[in-house]
Amino acid sequence: MDLNSATITDNTLTRARGVAHLIEQVCRFAYEDKRPEALHSVQWSALRYFSRANEQVRTVNGLAKFLGVTSAPASRTAASLVKRGLVTMRQSPRDARSNIFTLTETGQQILLEDPIGKVAHILAEMSEDDLCRLAAALDEVHSKLLS
């Protein structure tokens, strides 16, 4: 991606940076609980992943791919959730080198307090048109970041 493209004016780039900073702040404020015992944003992401993913990919490698990280940080995140009693770990029947993670009842209960739920409720108050435009814009940004 050419960030010095002649088609992007300084004014447009300044506005775009402002929007990017606003997105960062929204994400940061979504996880308002900063106590030492609070879950970190990556742990919330992992819990959501383990709650939705099918069994074949509820592994460290599946989590790593989902989070866009290597297996070491994904493994540490999964281990922290096991230690907190939010997920259990059992050996995969397909691959003895791999473990399958499953939410515990406590993990399912804590997901009811997921900070993303607050953001979803705020977004649900938007008009359908505004929500669709926001979704399309963020989807485009996401796709370009992945390419």
Descriptive key words:
147 residues; mainly alpha; Arc Repressor Mutant, subunit A; 7 helices
How is this structure best summarized?
This protein has 7 helices and 2 strands, in the order ααααββααα. By secondary structure, it is mainly α.
Structural notes for this entry:
The chain is mainly alpha-helical. The chain has one domain (35-146): Arc Repressor Mutant, subunit A, CATH 1.10.10.10. The chain has helices spanning 10-30, 41-52, 60-67, 71-83, 105-111, 115-124, 128-146, and strands at 87-91, 99-103. The longest helix is centred in the N-terminal third of the chain and has 21 residues, at 10-30. It is globular, with a radius of gyration of 18 Å. The termini are close together. The model has no long low-confidence stretch (mean pLDDT 91).
Amount of helix:
55-70%
Tally of extended strands?
2
What would the principal axes of the Cα set say about the shape?
A: globular
CATH fold description: Arc Repressor Mutant, subunit A
Strand content: 5-15%
